[in-house]
Protein: Aspartate-semialdehyde dehydrogenase
Organism: Alicyclobacillus dauci
Amino acid sequence: MERKSAYRIAVLGATGAVGRAMIQTLERRNFPIESLKLLASERSAHQTLTYNGSPVEVEVAKPESFEDIDVALFSAGASASQIFAPEAVKRGAVVIDNSSAYRMDKNVPLVVPEVNPHALDGHQGIIANPNCSTIQLMVALNALREFGLEHVFISTYQAVSGMGQKAVDALKDEITAWSKTGKVKSTIFPLASQDVHYPMAFNVLPQCDVFLDNGYTKEEMKLVNESRKILEIPGLLVSPTAVRVPVMNGHAESVAVRFRDAVTPEMAREKMRAAENLVVVDEPSQYLYPHPQMAENTGDTYVGRIRQDLADPNTLLFFVVADNLLKGAAWNAVQIAETLIARA
Amino acid sequence: MERKSAYRIAVLGATGAVGRAMIQTLERRNFPIESLKLLASERSAHQTLTYNGSPVEVEVAKPESFEDIDVALFSAGASASQIFAPEAVKRGAVVIDNSSAYRMDKNVPLVVPEVNPHALDGHQGIIANPNCSTIQLMVALNALREFGLEHVFISTYQAVSGMGQKAVDALKDEITAWSKTGKVKSTIFPLASQDVHYPMAFNVLPQCDVFLDNGYTKEEMKLVNESRKILEIPGLLVSPTAVRVPVMNGHAESVAVRFRDAVTPEMAREKMRAAENLVVVDEPSQYLYPHPQMAENTGDTYVGRIRQDLADPNTLLFFVVADNLLKGAAWNAVQIAETLIARA
C-alpha cells in the first residue's frame, strides 16, 4: 500500500456490532483518515452514525462504493465479502475482511499483527482478519513458540456479542423476562438460524456456530485451522471445545499446551511479559487473574493462571481473555491496516 | 448398617442449600424414614421446614442430638463435621458427610454409588460424599474405565449455588442492580471470605475456592485427588481448571481423556448408554447435547459432544453436566445411604 499522510477508508457492515467497534477503534487509535465512507445493506443503511463527533450517513453498499477507497474494512458476513471484496480490489482498495470467507484461501494472508505481520507482504488485495477466539489464543501462544508448540487443548467461554448485536439484545431480553417472571425463556441461542433454541441466561451452551460432519462445530475447526495457518505450524495439534456463556462481551479460554521442551511458569511469564499487547495478570495471592470484564473495551490480550501441569513438565495451563469485539475483531482489523502502512 | 423397615435420620446443616436439597431428595426418593431430625447452628436453627408436607422445627445441633439416630447427613461445613461426626459415630450413627473434612482420610470411604459402592464395606462410621465437580466426572469416566484412563484434562463451568444459597442471592442481587442501572457491581464472588471481589453477572471467574501454594485452587486439587481415590487409580493424571460462571444451578465440564487404548465415539457412547444414571444426549444434527438447565432438578448425569480428538485416536472429548446440588451433593448422599442399606 502506498504511503500517504491520510487514507480514504470504507467500513462495510458499519451498523453491526463489529462495524461500530471498527469506527470507534479508528477514532481511538487516531487513524490517519482523509475520508470515511460507511456502508451497509439496503436494510441497515440510511442511519446516521458519528465519527469523531461528526455525523456520517450510512450508504447502501454497491460495487461503485469502493471507487477512490484506500482501505476497506469488511464486517458484513461471508456472502457480502464474497460479493464486494473482488469489486473493491478491482477498484484499487485493500480489503481487510473480518468474515470467514477468505481466511483459509492460500492466496490470502490471515494476520494477527503481533504474530505474523510478515504474512502481509505480497498480499493480493484481500487480507483476512482471524476469528475472535483464534486471535487471543495466537497472541498468547506466539509468546511461547520458541519452546516448541505441540498440542493445544482449549475450552472456550465465549460472550454472546460474538453472535452480533442481536444476541446481546436477546440476552438482555432473557434477563428482563427472568427478572419479571423468575423463569428463563429461549430466544435465539445458540444460533438464530436453527429450529431449536435453549435459554442462554443462567446457562452455558456447548455450541458456537453450526455442527460439521466430524462432530466439531465450525467455531472449533476455526481454532484448529486458523491457528495452524497463522503460526505456520501445519502439524500443530489442537483439541477445541467452544462454549457460549451468558457474558455480554469478552471471550475467555482455558488452555493447556504441551511443548517440545520442559517449560516452567516463570519461563512462560517472562516471555509473555515481553510480548507485545499481551498483559500478564497472574498473582493468585493477590487474587489477580484475567476475567472478561477486565478486558472489556481494551485492545489487549490478558493471560494468567499460568501453571505447570501436575504430571507433565512439558505442559502448561493458563487462562486467556480479550474483548472479542475489539482485539477479537475490530481492533485487530485496524491494527492490520496500520501494519500495512508501516510496512509500505 | 442394620436392616430395618425404616430409619431415624438427622440432617445437619438443614437450612443451607444442600441441606434443603437433602430433605427434598429424601422425599423424592421415598426414603424409608421412621423419624427426621433437622439440625443447624444456633444462628440458623429455630426455623420451621417441611418434610412431606409436615412442619419440622430445626433444632440447634449438640452432641446429644445424635442419640438414637441411624443415619446422619452432614452439610454444615468442614469444621462442623470435625466437631460432630465423631460424636455422632460414638452414639452409633453412620455419618454421610458432604464436607471436605474426611474425604482424603484413608479410613473413610469416598463414594459415588454408581462407581465404587464396594468402598462402603468395612466403613468405620463416617462416609464422605465427594465434591460436586468430582462426582459427575466420576460417573462419566467410570463408564469408560475399561479403555484404560490415563490423562484427564478438565475445564469446568461451575454454578454459583456451589457456593451456597448466599451466592445464589448475591448473583440475583447483581442482576437486579444491572437491570436498574445498566452497570455491574461486585458482591461476594469469587469468595465471600476474601478482600477482593469481582462481578459475577455477565462474567466468568477462573477461581473456585482458595488458591494453594502450587498455583492451583483447592477445587482443582479436589478434582485430582478425589478422582484418584474414587476410581482407585493412584497414577491417574488430571489437569484441572475450575471456573465459576453466572449460572444459578448445574455444573458443566469440558473433558478430554487420553486412554491406554484407541476408543471411537461409538464405543464410548455404547458404554456410557449402559452406565447407571448416566444419560447420553449426543445428537448434534438434532441440536441435542447437555447444558445446565437440562440437568436442573434431576439426579442424573448428562454427557454429550462425544468426539474423537482430531490428532489422537486414544483421546476423546466430551461435555458433562449435572445438578451440583443434587447429583453433586444431596442426591449422591442419599444414594449412599440407600446403598448402605442395600448392602447391609
